[in-house]
Amino acid sequence: MGSNFDIFASIVFKRLKGKTQLFSPNTNDGYYNRMTHTLQVLAVSMKLINIAPEERKNDIDVDVVQRIALCHDLGHTPFGHAGERTLHDILSGKDRLGGLISINYYKNKKPLDGFRHNIYSAKLYLKFFLTGRKRIKDTKNTKIIDGILKHTKPFYDLKEVKAGDINYGIDDIIKSYPLLKIKDYNITETPLYLEGSIVALADEIAQRCSDTSDALLSKIISYKHLENKLPSIFKGKKYKDIENTIVCHFIDSKKIKWFDNAVRMTKVAQKQCDKLEKLIKDSIQNSYLIRTNDIKNSQIIRQVFKALYKNPAQLDDATLVNIYSDCLKQNLQSIKQESKDGTINTKELVSRLVKTHELIEKSAIKSSLIKIETILIKNIAFYIANCTDLFLYKKYKKLYGGEDE
Question: Where are the domains of the chain?
């Protein structure tokens, strides 16, 4: 896997070890985090390739599979899916942060952005790993980006996407990598290539492993309960070998069907996998630990977002530079604040961003104002999405409790 050293060495990959998979990695070092889950997806993907029929193995680009597996969750937020959903609600207008973001902004912007980790993962892949990578041909990168985008359900609501109400940031991907066709991502949840399908299936199996293991470790569910509910998988097996039990049960040549551009479980195996998912999901969602943590963590994200939105001066310099650069790319010259040596006057930039809030609140709606506000809101979301659990919690304590980061 020498060709993947650039991924392992990157800051976006390293951050995965500090992001929640199901339970916070800061509460028990035995829980999975986004990095351990990612490495498991990689391992399961390789196991799937090993059992592929010989005629299919020749069609599989292993390097592409590895890169999809390693990068598929780069865009995940801190605090797991609760964090992702919180950012989506803010960007899509379902949560105006208690009226802080003007209704005039949402009314005059279409489509709204929304947030899904798979789309942000593709954005990060383009930003960190595609530039200058001349040795991988465009066909390979097309497969990689498609696989990252399609490793999970691309959207929360496909109807909203088809209606043109919510975009989720796909336009940004298309502009950055025009070889993709946007219609492919509006109408399907299925990877276009075999490599992406392998990772999508590996991700599903790996999630059953990590979720079941963590649920047992947290004592939310017992192994005896698993044996009773799904004896075909767990009866007579060892509790300490739970992940291997699940992987060996589903990655079986008799339970996997191969097609030209896809790989899937048989109907019987898929039904068992779905039953295990529902069993764990119902147990976890009904638990006091998850309910209370999700509420608390969602509020941390909301409060940090509110603080940074109300006073952009609290954003780090790198994010302010990104905002400035994005504005100039859209030819928003009114935001231009540079000295003769090219240094950005961040104080004036922040003042202009705050003034934009005020004008939109007063219904002084211009397309340029909406564009500036959109760039600010998206960059705050990206800043938060890049944080680890612990870093964002410290940011929250600093903003509201006066503690050092």
Answer: 1-292, 293-398
pTM, entire model: 0.93
How far, in Å, are 113, 283, 302, 355, 380 from residue 370 at the CA level? 13, 43, 21, 12, 15
Task: Give pLDDT, residue 135.
Answer: 46
CA separation for the pair 59, 51 (Å, rounded): 14
Q: Omega of the bond prior to 111 within 30 degrees of 0, cis?
A: yes
Q: How many whole angstroms separate alpha carbon 287 and alpha carbon 27?
A: 16
Rounded CA-CA distance 191/248 in Å is: 24
264, 190 contact by CB (below 8 A): no
Considering only the top CATH level, what class is 1-292? mainly alpha
Average pLDDT over residues 242-259: 95
Evaluate whether 22 touches 80 at the Cβ level (below 8 Å).
yes
Task: Residue 228: count other Cβ atoms within 10 Å of its Cβ.
Answer: 11
CA 22 to chain centre: 14
Tokens coding 405: 């980061």
Cα–Cα distance measured from residue 92 to residue 88, given in angstroms and rounded to the nearest whole number: 6
CA distance 325 to 332: 10
Give the tens place of pLDDT for each residue, 367-405.
Answer: 999 999 999 999 999 999 999 999 999 999 999 886 665
